[in-house]
What does this fold into?
Amino acid sequence: MEIFGRDESFRLLEEATAAARAGRGALVVVRADPGMGITALLDAHCAAARDSGMRTHRLPVLVPSGRTPLSTGPVSWDEPALVVLDDLHRADDDTLLALHELAEQVADRSLLILAGRHRGATPERFAALDRSATTHDLEPLDAAAVRAMTGAEVAEAGGNPWLLSRLTAPDRAAQVTGWATGLAGDDAGVLRYASLLGERASVDELASVAERSPAEVLAAIRRLAALGLVVEVDGRVSVRYPLLRDDLVATSAGLRGTVARALASRDAAPEDVAAHLVHAPLDSRVVNWLAEHAERLAAEHPLLVVDLLARAADRLPPGHPERHRIGASLAEAQLWSGRTEQARRSAGTGLVVRPDEQVRHRLRAVLAKIAIGEFDGAGAIEILDAEREEGKLPARLAVLDGLARFLIADLDGMQRAAEQAAPAAPHDPIVELSLLNFEAIALSFQRDFTGALAALDRAEALLSVAEDPLQRGWALFMRVVALDITQDIRVLDVLERGRPLAEQVGMGMLPLLRTGAAVIAYNFGRWDDSLAEIRAAAELPDLYGLGGPQHAIAALILLQRGDLPAAQLHIELAEKELGGPLRHLYDSLINCARAIIAEAVGDIDKALGLVRNLVEGSDVWDRDDPAMTPVAAPLVRIALAGGDRELAQVLLDQLRNFQTDESAEPYSAVLYCQGLIDGDVDLLLGAAKNLADAGLPMAAANAAEDAAVALAASGKTAEAKAADQIAIDHYANLAADREINRSGAALRSYGVRRGATGSRDRPKHGWGSLTAAELRVAELVAQGLTNREVAERLVVSVRTVDSHVARARTKLGCASRVELAVKFGEWVKEGRE
It folds into this structure.
């Protein structure tokens, strides 16, 4: 059997054996927790000693007496000799006394006595022997040894060789459970319950489940900890190895009902009880408990309970008093676990059987929430109309009506719904949260983003108690909107908070989040992240008109990185995919991208026409459109390039409508556009600094570039080069190769020539000479991707990747892609120096 990661242990034993051959014997005790490989180590060393010609003797320990050949006194062996005694923790007292005597005599003999024992087994019994012996502790295998043994990273076995050796066994769970419960003996039940209760179970919980006193359980835990099977800290217990815990759980399903009942009797969190009920048989007690807690569980832990609720709904006869309540909770759990069509069917079926008013309202709410989640405000209103009595709705349905009114841009209707629901707010956190959402919406439309964020701050305290993912999601969405309009970089953190909820619920929330994330990442210069969001969104069905803005963002990034053909392809796709209920949110972005690309191909008349249509032919500029602010300056650029100064001034005047005291980026955009129109270098440089400080590198680079051109036009060559370098540094970090080349051409038209692009001291050869784009391509090549796969990953053309690879090879002196990959790996290992 091959031994991994024990080189130091073998060295110690080999040195002890060599010393014994020379007449300097010893008693060596190897200690370890179970499964650490004592027996394998002793066997391997014994075989090596025997192969070298040394006599070896293996002394068995008889179970259960613990008797050994040493139990009747010391034994004589022809020397030199190696004596091996495994499982010393099971040996009787006579054996230990004999070893004490041998330890005192062996120093001048050619005799090595090698014993192995479990480290935690009654350590006080072995304390004296350990003092008279050379002790060696076997620790868990390190990561390198685990990889050598298994060919993979396996953290869940904690470096335990025995567990690692069972990883691929077809009956691993049974083998691992048998091993652990055999070691645990009478404490096996406590071990099983500790695995079922999960990480950090309390002693009191274990005592309740195991039906033993806390003192008895604490003693059992200490015995199990001594065996290395559990870890106990401050009265909290966890199974030491995740793999062991998982296998114990897999073989202990029959105990789930017992655990659930014990936790329920202790008023444990409903989700903790439900986690066990999903594996337990259904009976009347389970059904009654479910009926009491199902509504909360369906909203907060739908993935956990949806199948349990389905089992309960199928089991209950038509006349059962809890059938309708559990059926409503099932529809809610299906909705919040992303099973929209199942939820629609369950709610519709539930309404057919004429449930009581409370259940009927819940089922109607499910249908309305589905419509709202699909951004069908009119459909939601039609669903809710069936519940109106004298023109009024119950509070929770009224707030849904308010959201539906918002979706169809009926802000007055949203306000009426809020007023109708308001009396219930002090007693219902869902209604209170909804009203704060409406307040934030209204304040955002009034451009009072400070007030909107203050309302959402008050809503934050309700997110953990308002049992409605839709309203929680809208609170996060409105925070994203407010922070995005003000270009506050905290919006990235809020997006990440909303991502798990959007992925869980699905419907329109996930594509909307991915599209918003792509736009925001683009604005903040995180272009690779933006492209990753676009690739992920492309895997979803586009039911909401969001494919258009996704392609528009991809087009802008690809254009600025120098791949005009790919940018044109994406803008064509954006134009084809216009439509859907969310078109109005981003149609301005698509038209702006069309204008920018038209200018890039030299069709300034088309670009001017598109800009005029944006200003004159739509109401885009009459509302706060966060997608417009980052592209306002490029549109002013187009107007000035086309000689239409009046159009540029109109754009600036309308941009001022977006400006608020707290909206730093729109304010900087106003400075930038004013600087463009007036040719004011100070305004342009001030805008560049403000935009850079706000974390908006592309806009900052554009402003610095325009300042450089203005300086060059006035003959201030040195100042122009300094401003140009600011722009180049930003462009290089974004891998915006087209912008670098275009800005260089603009300066050359005024007789200003820059040095090598990129950082001032960028070398011509070596890793420091690579642009950000070339370096990223080299990294992907080193990962084994083909040029086509690299192009797909970066959403660029294969031709662009070919060009980057060729330039990287030239700069690094590589004869092939293989050599490029090898050099990249060496460079990374050397710390990228």
Observations:
- Residues 618-624, 661-665 have pLDDT under 50 and may be disordered.
- Residues 766 and 812 are 5 Å apart (CA to CA).
- The first strand starts at residue 26 and ends at 32.
